[in-house]
Structures are given as structure tokens and as C-alpha cells.
Amino acid sequence: MTTAETAAAPPAASAHGHAHGEHSPHLAHHFDTPEQQFDSGKLGMWLFLATEVLLFGGLFCAYTVYRAMHPEIFHWGHQFLDVKLGGTNTIVLICSSLTMAWAVRCAQLGQTRNVIIGLVLTLMCACGFMGIKYVEYSHKIHMGLMWGTNFDPHLEHGAHSQGGAVAHAPAAAHPLEATPPAEVSTTKLPTSNPVTHPAKGETTVAAAAPATLVNEPATSATAKPGQPPHAETPVAGAKAASGAVVPATTAATDSRTTLADAGVAPVGLAPPGAQAHEVPRPKNAQIFFGIYFAMTGLHGFHVLAGMIAITWLLIRTKRGDFSPEYFTPVDLVGLYWHIVDLIWIFLFPLLYLID
Amino acid sequence: MIALLGKLFSHPLGQFAAKGKTFLLPAEKSTLAPGIDALFYFCYWISIFFFLLILGLLVGFLVKYRRRPGHEAQETIHHSTPLELVWSVIPLILMIAIFVMGFRGFLDLHTPPDNCYEIQANGQKWSWTFTYPNGYSDSELHAPVDVPVKLTLSSQDVIHSLYVPDFRIKRDVVPGRYTIAWFQATESGESPLYCAEYCGTGHSEMNTKVVIHEPGEFEKWLEKASDFIKTMPPEEAGKLVYQKRGCAQCHSIDGSPGIAPTFKGLFGKQEHLQSGTRTVDENYVRESILQPTAEVVVGFDPVMPTFQGRIKDPEIEVLISYLKTLK
Amino acid sequence: MTSPHAAVGTKPVREIGAPPAELNYLNVTHGIRSWLLTLDHKRIGVMYLVSTLSAFLLGGIFALLVRTEHLTAGKTIMGADFYNQSFTLHGAIMVFLFIIPSIPAAFGNFVLPIMLGAKDVAFPRLNLMSYYLWVTGALCAVISIATGGVDTGWTFYAPYSTSTSTSVIPMAMGVFILGFSSIFTGLNFIVTIHKLRPPGMTWFRMPLFLWAIYGTAILQVLATPVLGITVALLMVERAFGVGIFDPALGGDPVLFQHFFWFYSHPAVYIMILPAMGIISELVATFSHKHIFSYKFIAFSSIAIAILSFLVWGHHMFTSGQSALLGMIFSFITMLVAVPSAIKVFNWITTMYKGSVDLKTPMWYALIFIWVFSIGGLTGVFLGAMSIDVHLHDTYFVVAHFHYVMFGGTVMALLGGLHYWWPKMFGRMYNERISRVATTLVFIGFNLTFFTQFIMGSRGMPRRYFYYPEVYTPWHVASTIGSYIMASGFFLTAGYMIHSLFKGKKAPMNPWGGATLEWRCASPPPVENFATPPTVGDPYDFHQVEYDPESGSWRHKAIAT
User: CA of C364: how far to CAs of C211, C278, C409, in Å?
Assistant: First the structure.
């Protein structure tokens, strides 16, 4: 494919000055005909889309597993998703697919100006989608409805959650909650796992308030070992209190009074709490938001990538690269965009329309 | 069926040492071990047969048909459906047979009988704790012979796996859920117990032993062991707690450094913590056991799991007594 | 980009005049830029070969460290933490940087277009990008090693991997990027085989190596994205505490295992299918006889590819999945053994009444059949659920997978390397020394790993820094074997590199192969063929005859 004179570098489509009158400058030299090149590109893009489906498939699988095992988490969590916003986004994306398909058709017909219009409209729809996404995300972040240890719902404006909130305490470790008697069931334990990141100052640890032990549980828990204490107990400052506070301030005095009896198990990460909402908050409710952000986040990332690709197409269209003989990139990006839309069409009901 | 296979296919040496070790497998010390071993040797002999067949043909052909002057490749058929069927179907039948026997053995391993003696087994980095029905906890697994024993397994931190080669049992110990294993030992004695799921620095040190008692001995052992706090002087009882609750895995008593600070000379000293210094007194010890990652000694990682809910205050008290003796 | 000798105008694109003598893909342009920015599949293949073999060296050094540590039951040359890192890095480097890419990316890239009769792969720029993705992944791995290494085992099980303080995120990022390198290579090969076959090259005239590459490519494209999402979730969990695998945050650690093995089981077939493809070529060529039962071998590659998606749970029989699920996995595992057995019997039957030439590539092919049979048969033990309970996470498993991955894939790679070396570099290596090296590798390999079967069934768990003293003799034997094997590899590297400078010039067809790559010069010109070859049966050895004068085989009755 190269001669002694030219370097092997330049892409096949450009930079050869001789006259091969019969074939388009876009025909790469390892292809025999433009049809073969176009077919190859199409097949390649379909294969790539298959990989995208499998990539999201893993997340859909996680969704299925968790929803099957803990439907209550999903029933509780979805009420914080605004169906109107999500529905609007769905319509926006469907429109963008329409404008994209139209752009592809115009490219096929050689109507350059309409291609540009179509691409611009698609891009605008995508921006709209991301804008609404931004609104939704910031609302959730503001309300503390986030994943994992960042889950800290303040559901009344300004008020902090009632009980069981995650204290951002440095690494207090938590064993199995229930001291296992012989009749224990084989269901999952409520919580465990002293997961620590010692190298980091930040905590990512399940640190439900050992501080909650300060008050009620010392009495109530002895009656029912293994049951998480009712989280209505106003654990003042439970959120702010860090586990480390306890020893330092009380070291001088008898610190035994601040730690529960050794035989009493501590509370887990996210004990259930009665809320002002009609659906009581289930344990480990943060799982819903972990999945929500993972799925919509990955999808949003793909929308952004699509927007970059469409912008690139716009530049090339303006440059006059495309014609009825060669519009492959428009076609292929169109395919990609349709898959991105399709994935959202699955995400929307699964996350927003749980009923 | 499996027993029949056992008779047909046990390794010849295995016949001699029916309960003892064979060359390839450890001693058979549980009721399920012989069945599993029988299937193992069934696979073994099938493997030997096919391997010798393949090797024989390979060597035979490369000798007989080696390239030499005057010897040309001969034309043969390029395909033979009957031959293909033969060497597809026969292995397929063998594979299915092995599958069926394996599945049945697996179900046996996972179906504890109704009248099991139940013991809680808890794994943590890097030790095992076995809690008996009377509440006593020990680092060794003791059980009576000829009695089915059910283990309810749980983990403090990461995934471990309880493995007793002699019993042919293995079960992952997963944080956040309970898993079950069961066995019935057929002879008294000791067997090693390993952790079989990689869990960090001390994974290969997370070993203990299974002690199977003759009839009547187990109850005596349990009674004596459970009472150790009442019957022994506090310092000795504390030493037992140190050994049996897993402290010994990480804390030395002779001053040698390890994953955790040594206990030698610990009590009463000024300890350098990441947040300042403190005197090691009774409160410090208690807190270190119940909230170990609240304060971490300089130069060590916060890897100690908490014993909150798993240890009793009398045990902590005798442990403190013991620590005071370690100058 | 055609030769200045080409007539312009009426000739079809592919008809190109003969290049000047001595001008081939290696020397047609010079300078590092011409290599780093090349779009020539042959140069990309060579770069991959050098890179993956370098990774093999690095992974091998970690292996030797591990084995040396095991000379004694206690501490020998390192502490427990360094040991844990050593076996992790050995596994991760070998699996992700070496075994998965090597045969497809190095030999697939070089040989596939030529064997197919095409001028290049479908997407040459994507091909180059795949290579740079590999390099980036390798850099991430190096960064991880430099910033604390990884000690999770190559399997990254949660919650240990989400809580350890070692440098998991860079390594996971490296794996993610390497995954995309693999995906794009597979994508490229699928499109090439579907769309770039010249007239006359029907599906059933393709050499079996191409069927193997095709099956592998399907696995690469469909399975690797799941690895991508798995390590992405792992990274996100470590960085942001999302909690999908962490039980303290409501997650499920066994879910990680399902995700991980959903990819990693097909991955092992990505490793072995191309190797089997090479063996088909070697056995046919060096028996000088038509491969026996072409269609069954071709279809068995596809069957293995499909079935491989359905068996991942056999890595998890003890992990807490339900017995019913385990049963399904065990059953299908037993089924997937059958196509592999079919291949072994077909290869042996190919030798029957052939004319067997015991050159080095054929030695490696025979070693493969021996060693892969052992590996495959021991897989049966592991597929039986009750036996697996005893053998899981012991050295028996370690021995099994080294027999199939190392004894299988690496032996086939060496066979392919010796087979295609003259084609790729135009030089012959020294046959006598190569047999010495082959012997060392064979003896060393078996000593290293057969002892491990015995250790494992006797109860020795894996990933153990300290081990019970009773296993010491086995470990010592295994370590000695590893040194013997390493010496064989170093010797191989020695005489191969030496041949580049001092080796005899290679003829067009030194072995008498009938596939298309033996009909172009050694090394090939940039455009692969001076005139497009006519496509026939790739295993019809009547077409080739030996010419004593030139010391080469050649096709009978060819115009050029």
C-alpha cells in the first residue's frame, strides 16, 4: 500500500495525487468497491452496537437482580424521580432520533443544507436532554439522594434525615448485626463489613453511628438482640457525630458508659426509618440511587460522546465531505444515535415507571 | 450407584488404605468422602485411558509415518461421519454420567440431615471463630464423631472459604449472608482446616484444626472449655482468650512486630496514635476491641475487625488481666 | 499508494506489478515514524508480537519470583504482601497483556489477510488504534505497579478488591482499556472475514486458522463489554462508594463474581481457540495431508464459542449460588468438553497415513496435543460438582489452567512462531538448537505443573504464602521445573533473535504449506501478493512439491 517514496502514514482516503478516474477519493485501497467499503463499515458499526448493548446489559442485569431481591427499595426510590421530566426527556430523545434519521436521508439525497439543519436539531435535542438531566441530578444531590455512603436524604427542606443517617465518620467497623442464634434464617444479614480505605482521609465506609449507641439502643436492643433499633429515636447530631469523637472527649472519664455492653450488636448502615412519605424507607435504600446514577450516568456519557460525533459530522458536512456516493459516517453515527435512544427507552420505564 | 462405582474404580492403593490417605487424596474422614473419592477415581481412570490412547496413537503415527525417503503421504478419506459419531457420542455419554454423579454428590453435600449439631463459624481476617450452642467461642472446631454437624458460616469482612480436605467440604463465607456446610466425621482425630478464598496478607495463616472426639468426650471438652473464665485464674483465662479469639494471629506477645502492635509491655505504656498519645489502660483496651478503627497506632493499618457483639465483657476483663502480665 | 511500476487506467485496483526484488514490508520504508504510524497489518502484527512477548517476559519474571518463594514453606525471599502482589501481577499481566491478545493480534493480524487473500483488514486505522489501546493499557498496568501494585488476585473479587489499599483503580482502568483493544481487534476480524473474502474464497475454503480466529472474534466482541462494565463498576465503587458489590452498603459480592466470570470464562476460550487453529495448520502441513474432517473442526470452533457463554458458574460452585443453577452450569460444562475432544481426535487422524515431518513447529503441535489433553481431562474433574468442592481453590485448579493456557496456548504460540517466523522475517532459525529448547520447555513445563495436580488433590490451597511443610517436596520439584522451563524460553529467544541477523534466508515455502501465505515472498511485499493467487483447497497438498534446487516447496503449475 505504500511506495518507496511515501510514508505509510496517511489515511487511505486522502493524499494520493494520481488519477484513478474510476473510483471515489473516499475508496480505501484495501477495498475493491465502494459497496464493499460501505457494507464493511455498516457491519462494523452493528458489531460495535452489539458491544454497547452488552455493556449496558451488565447494568440491566444488576438492576434485575436487585429488584428481584429487594423490590421495596425500588418502590421507595422511584418516587423521587420526576416522571414528567423523564417523560420529556424520552420525547426529546425520540425527536432527536427522528431528526437524525432525517439528516441521514438528506445526506443520501445530497441535500447538504438539510443535513446541517438535521444535525443541528439533533444536537439541540441532545443538549435539551442533558439539560434536563442536569436539573434532575442537581435536585437529587441537593436532597442527598445519592449512592452508597453519600446517601443522606434530607427530604423536608432543610431538615436532616430522621435517624439512621450515615455519619461521615472515619472508619468505624461493623460486624454482623445479629448474634446468630441457632434458628437464624438464611436471609441476608442486615449489614456488615468494616470496609476501610486507610490510605484515604475521606471515608467511604459504612459508618452508621456507633454514636447511635450512645442513647437508646443500649436499652432497647437488649430486649431484641439483632433487631436494628427503631430509628425514630432522635439521635441528635447523629449525622455530625463521628465515631472518633467519643473516646477523645470522654477518655478522662469512665468511657465504658459511652460504649455499649460488649455483647450488644451495633446498628447497621441504613436501618429502616419511618418517613413523612407514604412509603416507609426500606433498609439499604441507597442501592436504588447507586443503580440509578450508574445507569443514567453511563447513558449520559454515551449521549455526550454522540454529541461530539455529531459535531464532527457537522464540521465535515460544512466542509463538503459528503455526497450521495459517500455518506457513510452520517449513516453510522445515525445508527449509534438510535441505539443511545433505544437504551433510554428501556431505562425510562425501568427506573421512572415502577408501580 | 456411587458406592458401586467406588468398589469398581477406587485406586488400588485406596483399597488397602480405605480410610487412610491414598497417593492422590487425603484420608477419608467423613461420611461423604468415599462417594466423592469414588467419582474422582472414576474420572481418573477414564482420563488415564484416554490419555494413553491419545499418546499411543500419537507416538505410533509419528513413528510409523515419519517422513523418510521413499515414503509418501497416502490418500485417505477426508471425513467419516461414523467415526465422528463414535468419538462424539462415547465421550458425551461419559460426561453426562459424570455430571449426574457429581450433581448428586453435590446435593448430598448441601443437604444437611435434620438432627444436626449446630455450630456457628465466623471468618475474619485472619482467623476463625467457632461458637458452640452454649455460647462458648473457640478458634478450633471441635465435634463429636459419628454425629452430623451443621456449620452456619458468616464473615466479618471479605469473602473467606472454610475448607477441610479430609472431609471434602468447602464453602465460601460471604459477608452479608449466611451459608451452610455440614459433615459427619467417621473417625476421631485431628484434621487441618484452611481458608480457601484469598483474603489478604494473612490468608495462608488463617488455618486451624478440626478435632473430632470419641463418643462422650466432646461434651466433657465443651463443658470444661466453656467454664474457663470461672474455673481458671484470670491471667490464664485471659491467655486462653488471647489464643482462642484470634488475637494471636496478629498480635505477638514476645515483642516481634507483625500486622498489629505487640502485646508485650503494652499495658500501661504511652501509645502513639494517629491522633495523639494515650496511656494504655483498661478503657483503651476495651475500646480497641469494640471500636478498633477509631484510633489507630502510628505505623499500622486499620484492619482489625470489631468484636462488638461477638465478645463478652468478662472475656475482655480476663484479657486485660493477662495483658497486665506481659511486661 | 501503488508501486510506480503499476499501469494506471484500465487495470483493476488489485493488479499490481511485481515490486523490485528485496523490497518487502519490513524495509520498504524506514524510520520509527513509519512503524508507529503504519497502517500495514503486517507491521502492526509484528509490533504486537514484540509487545506481547515483552509482557510474557514480565509476567514470567513474577512467576519465577513466586516459585522461588515457594522453595521453602516459610518466608524465603519476600514477605506475604509482596508475594500477594507477585501472584496477582503475574496473573493479570499474563492474562490481559499476553495470552488474550497474543495469537489473534500478533499472528491473526499478520496472517489473516494473507491467508484470506485480502490486502489488509477491513479497518486498518482501527487496527492501529487497537494496538495503541494495548499500549495504553500496559502503561496503566505499569502505573499501577509503580504506585503500590495490586494484591487482589487477577480475579479482583469484591469486597476485598473494593477495600484493599493497593493501587486497584489504575490496574482496573488498564484492564478496561485492554478490553477495548480486544473488542476492536475482534470487530475488525469479523468484518474482514465477512466482507473482504476475494472471489473463490468461500467460507469452506478458508483455512481452519481463520475459522478459529472468527470464533475468537465473536467472543471478543460479545464477552469483553461485560468485563468492561464489571471493572468500571469496580472503579466507581472504589472511587465513589457506590455500593453495588459491598455488603455493608447493601451490595452483593457474589454478583461481582457472576459479572466477572461471565466474561472471564469466554476469555479462556478466546485464549484457546486461536491456538487450536494454529494446531490445525501445523498438523496438516507437517503430515503433508489433508486435514481430517474439516467441517467438524470448523463447526466445533463455533460450538465452543457459543457454549462458552453458558458455563461461567462452574467457577462458583462453592460460592453460594443455588444448586439448581450450579447443575445447569455443570451440565453445559460437560457438553463443552466434547467439541474439544473432537478436535483432538481429528488432528490425530490427520496424521494417519501421512508423511510426518518432525520439525520444531510439529514438535510443538504434538506437545500441545499431549498437554492440552491432560488439561482438558482434568477440567472434567473440576466440572463435576462434588469433586469440585474438594478441588476448588487448590493447586489442582492452578495446574489445570496452566496446562490448558500455558501448555495449550503458549505451546501453540511457539509452534506458530516457529512456523511463520520464516515468512515474517525471511530467516530460518537453527533447527537443532530449537529442538533442545523445545525439550527443555516440555520437561520443565510438566515438572512444574504436574506436581501441582498432586499437591492440589492432596489439599494444598492456592494463593498461599506460607504452606504446610508436608508439601515442600512438591513445591521444590515444581520450582526446579520452572527454572528448566525458563531456560528453554531464554534459549528460544536467543536463537530466534540470532536468526534475524545470521539466519539462512528463508524460501517462499519452507514447510510445504498449502495455504495462501506460502505463495508470497518471505517476507511478503507490502501489498502481500504480486499477482492475486487463485484460491483452491487450503489442505490439498498435491498442489505443492519440493524443489531441491531452491530448497523450497512450491505450487505446481503456477504461472508465477
Answer: 21, 10, 11
Distance from CA of C9 to the nearest CA of B (A): 45
Q: What is the pLDDT of residue C450?
A: 96
Q: Does A265 touch chain B (CB under 8 A)?
A: yes
Which grid cell sits at A214? Answer: 450512645
Task: Indicate the SS3 state at residue A22.
Answer: coil
Residue C60 lies in a domain: yes
Q: What distance in Å separates residue B227's CA from the closest CA in chain C?
A: 33
What is B231-325's CATH superfamily? Cytochrome c-like domain (1.10.760.10)
C-alpha–C-alpha distance, residues C475 and C459, integer Å? 13
Q: Is A248 on the interface with B (CB under 8 A)?
A: yes
Q: What ipTM was predicted for this assembly?
A: 0.90
- pLDDT tens figures, A118-164: 999 999 999 999 999 999 999 999 988 888 777 777 765 433 333 33
* Residue A267 confidence (pLDDT): 57
The verdict on pTM exceeding 0.95 is: no
| Residues A62 and C244 sit within 8 Å (Cβ to Cβ) | yes
The answer for residues whose C-beta is within 8 angstroms of residue A278's C-beta and 6 or more apart is: none
Per-residue pLDDT of C11-38, as tens digits, reads 333 333 344 457 889 988 889 999 999 9
Instruction: Nearest chain A residue to B310 by CA: give it.
Output: A263
Residue C244 lies in a domain: yes
Domain B117-226 has CATH 3.30.980.10: no
Q: Which chains touch C (3 or more CB pairs under 8 A)?
A: A, B
Distance in Å, alpha carbon of B239 to nearest chain C alpha carbon: 25
Which residues in chain C have their CB less than 8 angstroms from residue B192's CB?
A: 459, 468
> Is the CB of B302 inside 8 Å of chain A's CB atoms?
yes
Instruction: Give the whole-angstrom CA distance, residue A143 versus residue C212.
Output: 54
CB C273 within 8 A of CB C300: no
Does residue A234 register a pLDDT over 80?
no
The CA distance from C349 to B320, in Å, is 75
* Contact check, Cβ <8 Å, C246/A21: no
Q: Given this model, what pLDDT does residue B68 score?
A: 87
Question: What is the 3-state secondary structure of A37-82?
Answer: HHHHHHHHHHHHHHHHHHHHHHHHHHHHHHHHHCHHHHHHHHHHCC
CATH number, domain with residue C44: 1.20.210.10
pLDDT at residue A203, rounded to an integer: 33
Which of B 118-157 lie inside 8 A of A, CB atoms?
118, 120, 122, 131, 133, 152, 154-157
What is the per-residue DSSP string for B51-110?
HHHHHHHHHHHHHHTB--TT-PPPP--S--HHHHHHHHHHHHHHHHHHHHHHHHHHHHHT
Task: Please compute Rg for chain B using Cα positions.
Answer: 28
Domain annotation covers residue C21: no
**Test the C interface: residue of B99, B152, B183, B250 with most C CBs within 10 Å:** B99
Residues of chain B in contact with residue C357, where contact means CB-CB under 8 angstroms, are: 66-67
C129 interfacial to chain A (CB closer than 8 Å): no
CATH 1.10.760.10 placement within chain B: 231-325
Chain C interface includes B103 (CB < 8 A): yes
Ramachandran category for residue C197: left, alpha or beta (phi over 0 → left; psi -120 to 50 → alpha): beta
B177 touches chain A (CB under 8 A): yes
The C-alpha cell that represents C507 in the structure block: 524460501
| Domain range enclosing C444 | 40-559
Pairing of strands B189-195, B160-164: antiparallel
Q: Is residue C276 part of a domain?
A: yes
Residue intervals of chain B classified under CATH 2.60.40.420 are 117-226
> Chain C residue closest to A48 (CA)?
C187
Identity of the amino acid at C263: Y
**B8: closest CA of chain C, how far (Å):** 18
Of the residues A16, A45, A51, the best mutation for testing chain C's interface (the one with the most C CB atoms within 10 Å of its CB) is A51
